[in-house]
Design brief:
The protein has four helices and six strands. It has one domain. Strand 5 and strand 6 form a beta hairpin. The chain is α+β, with helices and mostly antiparallel strands and 174 residues long. The two termini are 21 Å apart.
Length: 174
Amino acid sequence: MKARYLFAAVAAWSLAAAAPAASPVLKIPDFSELRGKAVDSVDITFDGMLLRIAKHFAKKSDDPHLELLSDIKSIRVRNFSFDSEGAYSIADVDSVRRQLSAPGWSQLVSARKRDDGENVDVYICAENDKILGLAVVASEPREFTIVNIVGSIDIDKLAKLEGEFGIPKLDVEK
């Protein structure tokens, strides 16, 4: 996936208007039936006790990257890659996209490439000028990724992670 859209959204983040409260938590399908079909799959759920442990160590660490966790309540990532087109139902991915039309969600990026079937959407959930969550839904004929971050997100801290922890370094003008 071309992650440059995610960081283009970061640049536009401050332009999003506040709207009535919506739940920043997305209902992401289980996708368990896809694990056997996928060439690669990533399923990350970082919340509850695991997140509290990470926050505890972040407070004791001098690593400035870990301060991003301070106001995060959960991080969920689902990524599946397949060796052929049509191995997953785009309806499953679209069921997540439809949730992002609820009040409180503001779209920052909508990128479509007809030639290769790539679709990327980036949204924030905000209330009273406070970011409550972030969602990224990206799909291609052989791959899809869904990211849902819940909690107060500091855009300056998030931008510092570029090129770290497997997050790609992007060609976006700063």
